[in-house]
Amino acid sequence: MSDAFIVGADMIRFGRHPDRTPFQLAAEAALLALDDAGITIREVEAIYAGSTFNSASMVAQRVLQLIGQTGAMCVNVSNACAAGATAVRQAILAVKSGEYDVVLAVGAEKNPRGLMGGPLTEGPPPEGLFGSVAPPSIFAEAGMVHASRYGTTIEQFAKVAVKNHHHATMNPKAAYRTETPLEDVLASEMIAWPLTKLMCSPNVDGAAAVVVVSERKARELGLARAVRVRGSVLVSDPYEARAPEMFDPNSVTRLAVGKAYEQAGLGPEDLDMVELHDCFATAELLHYENLGLCGEGEAGRLIDSGDTALGGRLPVNVSGGLLAKGHPIGATGVANIVEVVHHLRGEAGARQVEGARIGLTHVLGFASVAAAGVHVLEKA
């Protein structure tokens, strides 16, 4: 079985693109990734496209329509916020199977404005009418459970937003590149206690793409800028005895990362950087513990220490994260991988994590049952 390598990775600037279709955004990202790899669409044997709101419109085929119809196999996947990471994982599996040497994975989305719906399948329960199953409420509740157990404060949650917005000022492709001091974060509109508006990820448009190749093809292209895939895992919620409408962001992430560390033969102590799913500020602190970056109940102290900021022991979300880079649902998982690839190559500019050799990406998508995707990447 061949190893899989990422040889091309890029994204468009996230934000609002009112005059462009999601297919145009996806096509631009695809061309950027192909140019980065030094190949053309003619060499691509298969395309996987991840999207959620636009998934029914055959994104992969429409990308080919725009940049060159070649007869390549096309597959479209929808997996909530994990859609893009799912597309990348399918590309990796296609290469590792030996059937393909060159596969393109794209994530793209034109997000609707306003509050995203909650994980409802059979109509809302009464409390749902008041927003208790909307994403901000779910992650607010998860944060308050952590606070009740470990004494985590609203200031500690807010520091996540301060850190990630600062990182975004160094990322030319982030949607929001403005410093947000702690007092501004705390004073912004309260959405769901303890989450203020600046502690919630903005719904934006965006697209990102990567080119995944076999070891044979990577060597042909040259390994100088290639990134090896050490681990690629996608799981759904394990069974837990809880009400079906309740959502737990913790167990599914722990299951995924445990399998990813085992597959990679590495542990959290080996990581140089992490891009995780900070859909809300509370989520980042929860995932510090879920990914094994610190011990149980230590996430608040970890953000206080500065270790997860650029220049710290283990920088997290130096792209700006979902909180500031933006969260175009289907593109997010691919964009996280693009960010890590750029750092492992030493090409991240002002926000470069010095000496980065191993990075981890994490996404979490949910409806009634959650999906978590984890990728472990290593400089070749």
TrEMBL record:
Signal peptide: none annotated. GO terms for molecular function: acetyl-CoA C-acyltransferase activity; lipid binding. SUPFAM superfamilies: Thiolase-like (SSF53901). It comes from Novosphingobium barchaimii LL02. Keywords: Lipid transport, Lipid-binding, Transferase, Transport. PANTHER family: ACETYL-COA C-ACETYLTRANSFERASE (PTHR42870), NON-SPECIFIC LIPID-TRANSFER PROTEIN-LIKE 2 (PTHR42870:SF1). Residues 5-110 form the Thiolase N-terminal domain. One of its GO terms (biological process) is lipid transport. Pfam families: Thiolase_C_1 (PF22691), Thiolase_N (PF00108). InterPro entries: Thiolase, Thiolase-like, Thiolase_C_2, Thiolase_CS, Thiolase_N. This is propanoyl-CoA C-acyltransferase. Its EC number is 2.3.1.176. Residues 252-378 form the Thiolase C-terminal domain.
